[in-house]
Amino acid sequence: MFKRRNNNSNAGDSESNDTDSITVYFEDRPIACRPTDSVAAAVLLVDPGYTRRTPVNNAPRAPYCMMGVCFECLMEIDGVENQQACMILVRDGMQIRRQDLMADLSDANAAKQDDGAKND
Ligand code: FES
Questions:
Q1: Is 82 in the pocket of ligand 1 (CB under 6 A)?
Q2: What is the pLDDT of residues 7-17, one digit of tens each?
Q3: Is the CB of residue 43 below 6 angstroms from any atom belonging to ligand 1?
């Protein structure tokens, strides 16, 4: 899906940032990335399909703006949910997971029905 750009500005330049590779894990799958990558950028290297589901209708989502505005990149990072992956740099050994949280709307729906019954 996405391909890393070559940062070498001069053709024939043998210096490369790829030598600073670290490994993070997305759904237990290893990803080789650079320490300067955001979590979202690292995950997009492996074509994740989706990285979270919406809590209301379970629709799949993936990072979109990559600058902290849209909140489509929420993921579980090292066991902590609701992390904005485009704003967090990778760290060697980081464990990243999709966020599949469905909101429990049963209480909200029950309260709505109670309000409706009182108004009848
Ligand atoms: S991708 Fe938009 S806030 Fe992270």
A1: no
A2: 654 444 444 45
A3: no
Residue closest to 52 by CA, chosen among 86, 98, 103: 98
Tell me the pTM: 0.76
For ligand 1, say whether the CB of 38 is within 6 Å of any of its atoms: no
CATH number of the domain at 17-119, please? 3.10.20.440
Mean pLDDT of 66-82: 96
- Tell me, letter by letter, the H, E, C secondary structure of 69-82: CCCCCEEEECCEEE
How far is the C-alpha of 60 from the C-alpha of 68, rounded, in Å? 19
Q: Tell how far the Cα of 88 is from the centroid of ligand 1, in angstroms.
A: 11
Q: Is the CB–ligand 1 distance for residue 68 below 6 Å?
A: yes
Q: What single-letter amino acid sits at 90?
A: V
- Segments making up each domain of the chain, as ranges: 17-119
